[in-house]
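Justification of computing resources. Each target in the renewal requires a structure prediction run like the one illustrated here; the chain below, 353 residues long, is used simply to show the kind of job we budget for.
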Amino acid sequence: MRYTTEDRRVPGRRPCGRGNGGGGIHPFTLDHCDFTNNICAAYANGAIGCKVTHCNITLGGRNVELTGNEDIKFQDRHRGIFLTESYDLIVDENHLSASGGANQAETEGIVIGYSRDNNEMVFLNQATGLTNAYVGEGICVDVNNKPAVGLTFKCNENSDNEYDFWNRMVLPIPFGTIPADQTIRTIQGEMDRPADNTFDRNEDLPEFSDYNTNSVLNVVTYIFKDPETSFEPIDVRAPYITPYTSEYVTRISNNCQSRLIRRVPPIHAVGLAELGTVLHDEKLAYGNTRYLYDQLIDGGSTDQTVQEIQQSWPEEAWELRAMLLSKSPYLSTEVLMQMDEKGILPDAMVAEI
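Resulting structure tokens:
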């Protein structure tokens, strides 16, 4: 456990330590854990399904050099939670703070990197006295649907941090990637579910920053309610971060009691073209699932939407389906993989076979 320089294990609770995703095969759960003066309390690279919840993390008290192969990713900062190239994450209700002292190292609380086209949320955490409290870095969106799908920050609290939130580019630019694709979701919050993060409201400490050299293509709209309160950031990197509120912004009563993630933003936030694309995709996904369901239940359906989708599938897909079903269940793995790679069968037919 190289990154665990010191930890306090709470009696009766899960032992805490370093976690490494290891190529997507070793997710971990840390719950109600205490970490003190770790270089990194929780770290995963390429993991699916990691959970870090209700942990107390104090960091920055060991000013050691970061010279290892993995350390270059930390940018000379101790990090509380660092999850990169990972998805299906739960990072909720943790408390992160700096230990202070003359040898205080620079600190970052929660860093999510390269979560890509997954709707991830950092939810209901507290950060106090850190260099950077919450960071999204690299490609943390669906690059074809940046307003609707990607990493969001919701209901997190800040106190005396140098930067509360940071939409950050990873340098040097990884080979094969487009700089303009490096961003978090470009709409944070919804018209009836504002982001509800709280800010320091200290004009000397930036509250929402964006050091993406192509950020003019990724202006982040931050939807909030209750101007002149801690819910409104007063120091942002304009025009790349744009706080937004109006009389039409409302708040449901349990806004910070649920981490429900919506895929589609409200119509106020996107154009009709983008909304039409999302609607078409969702309709197709529904039709595929409904078709498969109807093959199993009651022998079919007269649902008009399902019929329309079935009629849109090409004739060669139906012929291939019939041929493969005639040989099922005696189909080799090689044949099934080739069928999937060919890409002419809808997901419903693939699942059926």
